[in-house]
Amino acid sequence: MIVRFVAVVVAALALAGPAAACAHPRTSLTYLEGQVMCPTCHTTLDQSNSAAAQQIERFISQRIAQCATTQQIESELVANYGPAILAAPPRKGFDLLAWWLPIAGVLAGAVVLAFGVWRWSRRREPEQEEPADSGLDEETERRLDDLLARFD
Amino acid sequence: MTGRLKLTAQVLALACVAGLLGLLVWKVTHQEHAPRVGAVAPGFTLRRLEGSGMVSLASYRGRPVVLNFWASWCNPCKSEAAVLERDWTRYRGRGVVFLGVDYHDLAPDARTFVRHHALTFPMLEDGSGRVTGSYGISQVPETYILSRQGRVVAHLAGPITDPGFAADFRSALARAAA
Questions:
Q1: What pLDDT is recorded for position B114?
Q2: In terms of pTM, does the model score above 0.80?
């Protein structure tokens, strides 16, 4: 009984050890492979099998095992390879344009489209509500209607 | 009012198209090409791979330079490392400078490579590939041999151990050192 208890405690400690080694949730190689570029083939690491990409994957795996965070790993790679190593541009300085320009473009397009639709609907509505004036008085119109009715 | 709005929209659309066209032209005209034989080699200043400080190509003006681009993940670079080291020890007495430019590489791996192959000529870091790009390098190893005036004497796109390149390397080195 005591032996079994000790075995369970040892197993629990062995399993809890690696999980408790990091003070934060570990990042994953799969995630970072989609965030980091292969410098020689200009695709993300998950799309590349080149020697340079494999070297970076090994580095990322080592750093994950050492409990490095995503930000730490990314900043170390940027320090070594420059900002182009990241698949997404940094969210600061001039690079912010890459994030905001597409949104501004979509918004501008939506505004132009909305304005066009509004103008188109304004032009159409009066035509439906008010038929064009024939310029004839009521009596002449009535007589004209009578005459046209004979041909029906 | 409507006419003015329409005109403004048309001008804006034309400006967008002109801007995109300008970007395309800029990209095409600023593409990096390998410097041709006889042309002045692009200048650069890079950090030393081992130790501290920067090294400028201009500081070697007046001496022939062998500029070897390599990376620790590159297999052919391993095979030519010993030949480069042997030629460096042979020609350094004649004033020839050998410079290694480590390209798109992790610095610790590159240092291990240098120690493993016992390379003693100056090694420079080009992690971002900026300088390597200015030489039109698409794969490593590649070697440029520069004259005392900083002009390209030869460009060998491949390991200098290749049968086709070995003789070219020697003769270009002899010409540059003459």
A1: 97
A2: no
